[in-house]
Specification:
Blueprint lengths: L2 E3 L2 E4 L2 E4 L3 E3 L6 H9 L8 H13 L5 H6 L1 H7 L5 H4 L4 H8 L8 H21 L2 H5 L8 E2 L13 H12 L7 H10 L3 E2 L6 H9 L1
Parallel strand pairs: 5-6
Antiparallel strand pairs: 1-4, 2-3
Helix pairs in contact: 2-7, 2-10, 9-10
Amino acid sequence: MGTIIISARQSKGINVMNTLKKCAWALASADMEHYHDHEWGVPVHDDRLLFELLILEGAQAGLSWSTILHKRDGYRTAFDHFDANKIAVYDDCKINALMANPAIVRNQLKISATISNARAFLKIQQEFGCFDAYIWHFVAHKPLHNNWGVAAEIPAATPTSELMGKDLKKRGFKFVGSTICYAYMQATGMVNDHTTDCYRHAEIKTHY
């Protein structure tokens, strides 16, 4: 995947002239494009959003990100807007209700992992004061700005994401392998993996 130029597009029902180059994956749908243009690669320091993205990246395992993004609002409603304190005390009745909810991916392992991850998340908050302080220490609290010319150069995992995954697993997290962790790093702006000819690469590098 590289980047391409769009001369005109239909975006959320509005015809918008757009001559900006952007990552090709962003053009799969209006939702994907909006996510690319406004969220992907922007540093996140809000604990609730950090938790949300970690759960969604885990939910993506074996699926496409577009599938999860399409269900994002459903996840927010189903999981109490990713309030870890509420999720940590979900019981069997709640799990059964989630398994019957078509607005999310109805995978019992992933649902159970979300609950155990909420509990592990709360323990980290207690230990470090906030999850942000813990998770960002893997990149020394600074975004890493990569300079990939084409998407094919972007790795699926790195030694840092491997280290992150191992530490999260040690702390009780599930669905946090090195590939999921690297996707999480990209999503939360720990790394800027927009290709250099994508307009967002320079924007994020300049502002963050």
